[in-house]
């Protein structure tokens, strides 16, 4: 017969992480760093969308912006810099993600039981983060190893078909992640009172939809840009 602990022998803590030691301020500093790296990425992604979408006005406008970033060497600083912030942001956020099946089951059970909008938003953040990590890294690698940026090169990539599908997946996921991230930073760091949450979330969702539309128009413009 198998030996079984009597039920009252099950002791707290049940998790290996709980050492009862004081955590100090490290965790709080890491939370700050996660938020700050998130803010940098949000500002970058908004600027990125407007810089790339300059092709809607005309390829010469996009080429001029790309030329400016090339001659000032800014692309060689901002490009790898953003790559590093992107990786740092993921590592910091990964501390909170449910990795094991046990954690994922518990998280899912809580989310379905609570019926709490912000809990679902957090789950969307975790899901989109995984895809963005892989696709964003591939995208940055391809663009940054093929400098200088020109409208013709971007158009050729997108007209190949594969990259069009790639961007059609990445674009909504990124905009969703950026939009929810913006809202969650405002809530978590106390910039938004409980009473203003719903209204802010609605405006943020509208902004996300507008940015996705601008991104789609940009892709369409690249798609129909004559290559010669
Ligand atoms: C590291 C600096 C980056 C540079 C220099 C850059 C540059 C570019 C360029 C030139 C395009 C036009 C398409 C092409 O050439 O293939 C593009 C499109 C795009 N990029 Fe980036 N990118 C950077 C970072 C990122 C990051 C971090 C993300 C998100 C994870 C991202 C998401 C996208 C998306 C979704 C598109 C589709 C275009 C659209 O908005 O319609 N990019 N990028």
Structurally, the number of domains stands at: 1
Q: Which H/E pattern describes the elements?
A: HHHHHHHH
Q: By helix and strand content, what is the structural category?
A: mainly alpha
What proportion of the residues is helical, as a percent range?
over 70%
Distance between the termini: 80 Å
Say which CATH homologous superfamily is assigned: Fumarate reductase/succinate dehydrogenase, transmembrane subunit
Task: Identify the bound ligands.
Answer: protoporphyrin IX containing FE
What global shape is seen?
Answer: globular
CATH class: Mainly Alpha
Gyration radius, in Å: 22 Å
- Poorly predicted regions: none
CATH overall fold name: 3 helical TM bundles of succinate and fumarate reductases
* Biggest β-sheet description: none
Q: Kindly state the number of beta strands.
A: 0
DSSP strand content: under 5%
What is the CATH architecture descriptor? Up-down Bundle
Quickly count the helices.
8
On the 0 to 100 scale, the average pLDDT is 88
